Fold this sequence. Notes:
Elements (H helix, E strand, L loop, with lengths): L2 E3 L2 E3 L14 E4 L6 E4 L3 H43 L2 H5 L22 E4 L2 E4 L3 H6 L3 H10 L8 H5 L3 H12 L22 E3 L11 E3 L5 E2 L1
Parallel strand pairs: 5-7
Antiparallel strand pairs: 1-2, 2-4, 3-4, 5-6, 7-8, 8-9
Amino acid sequence: MPTNWKGFWIISGLKTGKLPAHSPFVIFGKNSFPFVKSRGTPQMNTRLCGALTALIMLTTSSFSSFADSSNRASVDRGRYLVHIAGCNDCHTAGYGASGGNIPQSEWLKGDIVGWRGPWGTTYAPNLRLSLSALTEGQWVTFARHLSSRPPMPWFNLNAMTEEDLQSIYRFIKQLQPLGDPAPTYVPPGVEPNTPYVLFPATPEGSQSAHVFTTGGNTSQ
């Protein structure tokens, strides 16, 4: 807002340069916060000061509204990408078994069901917690260079645009509460103490899956 200092107006953000001859103001200074001295009467100065203040407030409000709208659109796109890219299939407990009928309040908290194969046993991590420790820039760099164990399709994440990765980050960052960490990786040859999906290699080299629980039951 304009501030009167020793007979001058300091107008934040006003660009330096010449004003028209009929202008009630004269600009002094060569920086982004120039001094403006009035040529008009006190009454005119009061009215003009009010008009400038209103203009500055309106401009600030407009930029703020635009930024909010832009961020909202980015968050909405992030939700869409998480949904169609299959992030919930592994990172949201019970998502596949329920046909995707899991409320958003439970999305991306990770899962205790492991994925076991020759690589060991991996768990889909809690993405809310993972991204809470990263800045947006750090997340983009991480996603671009990620290489991980199955069944994570890290190559799809590598191929996403920077804008899409930013949108995913912004969507996940606003999910609350963060939740608890998923179980940690179990090396090959070590029996997990959680339920897991087993991928034994068949003679043809294809993959078939069995689900094992801690009680020893199995299903295909």
